[in-house]
Each structure stands twice: as structure tokens, then as C-alpha cells.
Amino acid sequence: MGLRKETIEGILWSIPYLAVFTVFLVWPAVKGLYMSLHTYPNKFDLTETEWVGLQNYVELFQDPVFYNAMEGTLLFVAVSVPALVILGLVMALGVNRDVTGKRTLRAIYFSPYVLTVAVVALVWGQVYSQSYGLINYYLGLVMENPPGWLTSPDLVMASLAFMTVWWLVGFNFVIFLAARQSIPERLYEAARLDGATGWRAFKDITLPQMRNSVVFVVMVQFILQFQVFAQPYIMTQGGPSNSSDTLVYYLYRSAFSQQQFGYGAAMGYVLVAILILIAVVNFKVIGDSNA
Amino acid sequence: MVPKPSGSKSRRTFIKSLGVAGTVALAGCGGNGGDGGDGGSDGGSTGGSGGSESYEITFWELFSGGEGPIMESIVNRFNEEQPLDTDAEVTINRQRTPWNEYYNKLFTALSGGQAPDMAVMHAAYLRAWAGGVDAIGQYADTGSMQSDYTESHWDLVTVDGNVNALPMDMHPIGVYYNKDLFEQAGLDPESPPTNWSEFEAAGNAVAQNTDAAAFTQSPYNDGFGSFRTWSTWVKQQGGSLYDEEWNPTFDNEAGMNIAQLFSDMTGDMGWAPATSEDTWGNNAFQNGSCAMAMNGTWYVAALSGVEDLNWGFFEPTVGPNKQQDRVWADGHSLVLPKKDGRSDAKSEIAAQVGHWMTTQNPSWGAEAGHLPAANSIYESDAFQNSPYYDKTLDKYVEMAEDGDYFYHPKVPNGDPNAQNWYTWLVDIWAHNAEPQAGVQSGIETVSSGISE
Lengths: 291, 452
Description:
The structure holds two protein chains of two kinds. Chain A is mainly α. Chain A has helices at residues 2-36, 55-60, 64-96, 102-110, 117-128, 134-142, 156-181, 185-193, 198-209, 211-226, 230-236, 247-257, 261-287, and strands spanning 38-39, 50-51. In chain A, 32% of the residues are buried. In chain B, 43% of the residues lie in helices and 15% in strands. Chain B has 19 helices and 15 strands. In chain B, strands 8, 9, 10, 11, 12, 14 and 15 form a seven-stranded mixed beta sheet that branches. Chain B is globular. The chains are: A mainly alpha, B alpha/beta.
């Protein structure tokens, strides 16, 4: 009877969350899958649908704009994710030491994270401006033609990634700092007795002890940065020369500017597949040896 | 195609049509015979507003900068004066969305069944959006209204014979120039260029004799802004932009010539830096370091707030190898988006609101710098005495009278004002793409945009 009561209570307690989960995640996911297999001949009446099977997916894989957006996204991820993880780790280990002003530093490191992307984009738009930006003002003192950070096809993705690292690294910093502080000090004392300090202690104690946090941060950052949207949308509209186009930005354009909901939904599903693949690889590569 | 500029005839037709419109309004209020029920009570019963005599017309618009406050004042005026000839209390509930978000939001609202009762729409969208709007002729006597508007404005809102909207204005482009820089360059600031050789000489003089840049093809260095300038000069050379099936044809000789000119202006000619920075041209023109900027009627509202900028304006009919005078124009119009559950009575009221807004508000032309759609406003003192009249409006009127305007076709699909349809032009301007390759990628982008 007691167990039965517990079971019933458990189910009852779960219902509110499961209801929200179903309404806002499961149902849209199912609906999205349905949409990706259809087209909408009357874009003003979405109740009219036409079954096309996998045609949206087939078209997607033949679409050069999709590959260009994929390339842009991969470049952005390749620059931003390692920087976000490594810099967050270095900052956390740095202020974990007994340095003066570490409380202030912690506040400073975290503060950009509280800003919204629109604010960050506005501020960095000014900083990056080719003709009157802060960076080029100083560069202009030592060189004749400072580069266009957002207007050069070769630099734009790196510029957006750099800005993103500045904005988001505070989150990783907090996770890593918490993880570092939960490592028992006795491990380091024992290591010191054995003569292991510095790099050796980092490699054999700090990193293995922080493995779960690292896996978490790497995973979260891959998932978040793969979905980069607002930075190119607000700052560059995918330009110059489509060099800052990304998957989610293209998805948005397809669905809401070109009113191809089925095509956009198919792109969303391809994105989900990529993210699942990344998560699996991530667990296999750095998360497996948790013993 | 030309606005009827003056004369007692059009004034008479206007007065006459006002009488007709008034009768229609009264009919709407006093009962439509066999339709069963008058506007007020119908609205009450189907609109679900409780009281039988009040309507709230939700209205979406996209005006920013100098135009936004003027539209706000028009709406406020309506709500205070209650100018419609009806017993019902009608209020406009205005919501503004920035222009780069506007159509996406309107589309999403439409497909989700949450559209506003009335919305601003560019004429170029009226074909692609035809399935999403109620033809205004269903709810208003467009036959009698037609004479209130200039012919060319009326043509802009007519798609395949259906009057899909009420025209509000027309906004062509022109060239704004800095008189002080002209003087510095040794040019006569009161005699701006009237043809290509004068324009070229002026640009070269600025480039050689001052520290300033000579020209920006669009102050915001945006794709669509660049396309307005480029297509204007392509048409002046006699080049076509689209064929009858709306396939882009602008990879013709004229198109290539102007693309090459864009590349040269930021290259060998040294007229402007080769940049895609979107703020460059606007900043440079407003702070006096760029001599000429090609932009639309709306730019006056932005420039009027800039102190110490001694600017003038000339017609952009200065393209090279010109065969004909042609200048790009589009227009704002008012549509009734499709909306389930909106009563016919409310739609009729919304159509009347649109008619009032477009015919009774000279401030839209006089203060925002647009070419008004209504004949009566053309002839009004408020418009003729506008501070912009001698600076820009008279030249716009002149171009209209000469039949210089052309409109981009109302394409059946895609977004004819989209930035990313035309970013290839910014790429050519910024030397990120060779002219030939840039135009080819433009053809592909626009073709696939229209065919989708």
C-alpha cells in the first residue's frame, strides 16, 4: 500500500513537468517532423498541407546555401568552443589561487554573461566598426588601413566568435570554479609529498577531478554555439559575401522570410541530428573513462 | 501614370468623390438594405465587443526615424477627432515594428490567425501577399474613391485588376548632395549635375580637391538600397530587370556596365572606400565627409535633424549612356489583412479609416517628405508650403509629371525588398566579388527566391 501510494504521489508530482514537457517540447518536435515532410502551398493558410515525403531533405542536401551556412557554422564552432572552454578553465584556475582582488575579478569575468545578445551586438558593433570603431582607432595610430572586422569575409566569423567568447565565457568560468573548489585539498597535499606540483598536479589531479564539468561545458557549448543565430542576424545579416551565414539563420530565413516552413523544419531536424551525433561523440571521446 | 498635378478639374472630382464617399459612409452606418443590420450593431454582435457602438482597429506599421512620430500624430488625431461619419466610436490601436522585422512578423501573425485589422504594406509586396489580404474593394466603393488618388498611385495598388490596398504615398529616390563640399571642390553648389558628364566631373572634382568621398550608392550600404541605385541606372540605359514571367534579366549589358561602375567608383575612380560597412555612408554624409548620397524621399526626415549640414538635392537621372529618364519608386499602402472573425462591418470601418488616413493628412507628405497619394493633398497649402517643397518635393513632383518613375515588378513570390536578395551588389561595391561573378550570383539568388 505504501509503495503504491508513493508511486501515485510520484506520478502526481511529475505531471506538471511532464505536461509542460509534452506541450512545449514533445508536441512541437512531432509537429516539426510532420512539417518537414510536407509543403504548404498556401502560405497564408497553414492548414493546407501537401505530403512530399523526404523531398525537403533531398533538396536541402543539394542546396549550396545550406552547405555555405554549414561551413560558416562549423567555422564559428571551431573558433568559439575551444576558446570558451580553455579560457574559462584558465580563468577559473587563475582566480582560484590566493590572488588579491579575486572577488572583483570573479565579478568582472561573470558580468558580460548577464547582458542580452542585442546589447552585446550593439556594443561590439561599435567596437568593431571599420571607420570609427575603438579597435581601429588604436590600430589606425600604427597602421594605415586597419582591417574591417565585420566587413572582411576572412575575418567576420572570427570576430563574431571572439565577441561571443567575451560574452559567454563567464558561465563556463563559474562552472569550472565551482568544480575546482570541490576538489579536496588533501589530494594536492599528498601529491606535494610525492613531489608532484604544477603541470603534473594539473594533469593528474585537477583535470581528472573536473572531468564531469569539462564534459558538461564542452557539450553545452557545442550545442549552444551550433545554434548561433542572433550575432549574424543583428550584426552582419550573414554578410559580407554570405561569409557569416549560419544554419539557424538560414533556417529562420527559409521559414519566416521565404515562407518555406517544411524546408525550415527539415533543416531543424538535420540540426538536431548533428547535435545528437556531437553529443554521442563527445561522451565517447571525453566522457567515457569516468571510472 | 502621372499624378494629376493641378487644375480645377481634379479638385472638382475630389470634392465630388468626397460627396460619394460620404454617402457610402452614411450608408454603412445607416443600414445596408438587404444585408441585414447596420455597421454599428453588426460590429457589436460579431465583434464581441459588448457595446454596439465601438470599434478598435488594430493597425500595424513600420515607420521609424522621422516618419514614426508623424504617423503617431495622425493616429492620435484620428482618435481625438473621431472624423468618420458614423455614430460608432472608432479608435486606432497602433503598433510599430521595425521595418526589417515587420513583414516576417506580419506574415507569422497572418498565418497564425492573429493579423491586425489594417496594416501598412509596400506596393511591391501586393502580389506576393495577395492571398493574405482582403481586396479593399470588398468593403469600400473603390470606384468612387479612385478619383481621390493620382493615377500612378492607384496603379501601384492594383494587382491583376483587383484593388488590393489604398495608396498612401510614393517614395522615389534622388541624390542628396553637400553644398559646402561642392564649393570646396570648385563646383557651383547651386547648379548640381543634370547628366552623366556633369555628375562624373563633380565626383572627380570632389575626389581630387577635397578629403571627402564623392558618392555613396546607398547611405546604409545595404543590398536593397544599392539595388535601387543600380536598377535606376540600368533602366536609364534601357536595360531590363525582369521578363514577363518575373525571371531576372539584369545580367544584360546595361546591368554589367553599372555593376562595373560600382566597382570602379570604389576602385580606380576613388570616389568612396571599398567597404561593406553599413554605417559608413550615412555617417559620412551626415558629418560632411561624403559629397553625394542616393536615397529615398524619407531621407529628409533624417537630414532635417542634422545641424550645419548644408544639403541640396538633384534628380538621379544622371546615369551613364542614358537612353531614357527612369527613377525607381515604390509606395506605402494600407491593406486589410485576412482575419477570421472580423465582421464585415469592422472591415468597412477599417477601409474608411484607411481612406481618411490617406486623403486627409497632408503632414504625411509635408513633414515626412513623401509624395502623397491623394490629389487633394498635392494641391493643399500644407503640402505646397512644406519646408521640403523647394528642396526635394518639387523635383519629385516634376519627375512624376514627366513620367520618370518605374516600379520593381510585384513578384509573385519571395521578398522583393529583401536585403539578402541584393547583397551581391554590396559585394561588388566592397570588392568582395568581381562584377561579372557578383551579377551571376544575383541572378541565381533572385531566381531561386522567386521560384520558391
